[in-house]
Design brief:
alpha+beta; PH-domain like; 2 domains; 5-stranded mixed β-sheet; 4-stranded antiparallel β-sheet; 8 helices
Length: 337
């Protein structure tokens, strides 16, 4: 038999606590500092730079690409300032989830630091050389590429990670069944976002494939890997765009509408099942996520079925009514115990 219809149980709401108020402007200061550096160095170095600035190196030798000095600086500074402005708006927006805000600030710090590094390294190499054609980046310039990662990490430490305060999960009573009854439960999850993304990425993959097939041999080495990457990503998005979740005597199963198994948890591997409020930031974001000790299929923020496995790992999937499959898993688990 299938499980009887019943009202969805209320899942206790989790409360997200933002870091101390003083930490947000401190982290945003790190986002804006590279923009200020670009403005200051631009006012000092632009009068000394030639008409073009070395901007590309293929190896350890002299530069082989050049950009007009003023537009190079102006565009780099404008992009960095725009990214910093977006990070600031998102950080202070009330309706933005705290986990989204912190990663937007961290991403903003990375991009602005990278922009400042690219222009500063190019301009400094040009100023050191007799002319742009003789500009050498040097090993220090290559090593400096790690600076944006360190800068983003510093912004994360400055901002702090939001804390999730959640109530004790409601106890799940095993689903009442007669000794002769058998029960199964299933539902289908559909993500329009994944469908749209799959279509968009698939179109890009098709364009890359066309370019690889019709381009010259010099560019084919670039377009072929990109085509494979885009087509592969589009296929994975398509696999996850529609997933059937089922619970029965075999355990918990997630199966793609294309027939591919997404997750299989045998019943004898289920240590406990419960319903709780899921914050995507705690599980690595949206989609099929993996973190040490936990895996999840997350399509939204909200109620989710959480399964504790016997080896200590956890699996979660967002559902409208996770209490019903959790109760069924608890009953099936008790029957085989």
């Amino acid at each position: 038999m299938t499980t009887p219809d019943r009202p969805a149980a209320r899942v206790p709401e989790a409360r997200v606590v933002r870091p101390a108020p003083w930490r947000r402007p401190l982290a945003l200061g790190l986002v804006w500092l590279p923009v200020v550096l670009l403005a200051v160095l631009g006012s000092v170095w632009l009068p000394r730079l030639p008409d073009v600035t070395a901007s590309h190196w293929s190896g350890s030798g002299a530069a082989d690409g050049f950009t007009a000095s003023v537009p190079f600086w102006a565009w780099t500074t404008a992009v960095a300032a725009a990214i910093a402005a977006v990070a600031t708006i998102v950080a202070y927006a009330r309706r933005v989830l705290p986990f989204v805000a912190v990663w937007c600030v961290v991403g903003g710090a990375f991009v602005t630091a990278l922009a400042a590094l690219l222009w500063t390294a190019s301009a400094a190499a040009t100023l050191r050389a007799p002319g742009p054609e003789q500009a050498l980046l040097g090993a220090g310039g290559v090593a400096a590429l790690f600076v944006p990662f360190a800068w983003a990490g510093l912004a994360f430490l400055a901002h702090g990670r939001p804390a999730v305060v959640r109530p004790e999960p409601a106890s799940i009573e095993p689903l009442p069944l007669a000794d002769t009854e058998r029960a199964a439960w299933s539902t289908t999850l559909t993500s329009r976002m994944f469908l749209y993304l799959a279509a968009g990425v698939g179109v890009l993959g098709g364009l890359m494939t066309f370019s690889a097939a019709n381009g010259n041999p010099e560019t084919r080495g670039i377009f072929v890997p990109l085509a494979v990457l885009f087509v592969g990503v589009a296929f994975m998005l398509l696999v996850l765009a529609r997933v059937r979740v089922s619970v029965d005597g075999r355990g918990l199963r997630l199966t793609s509408w294309l027939g591919f198994p997404v997750t299989r948890i045998p019943l004898d591997d289920v240590a406990a099942a419960r319903a709780e409020q899921l914050e995507p930031g705690e599980w690595g974001g949206w989609g099929y996520r993996w973190m040490p000790g936990r895996t999840a299929f997350v399509l939204r923020r909200g109620p989710a079925l959480v399964v504790d496995r016997r080896d200590g790992r956890q699996f979660a999937v967002t559902l409208d009514d996770p209490a019903t499959p959790a109760a069924l898993l608890e009953r099936l688990r008790a029957d085989v115990a």
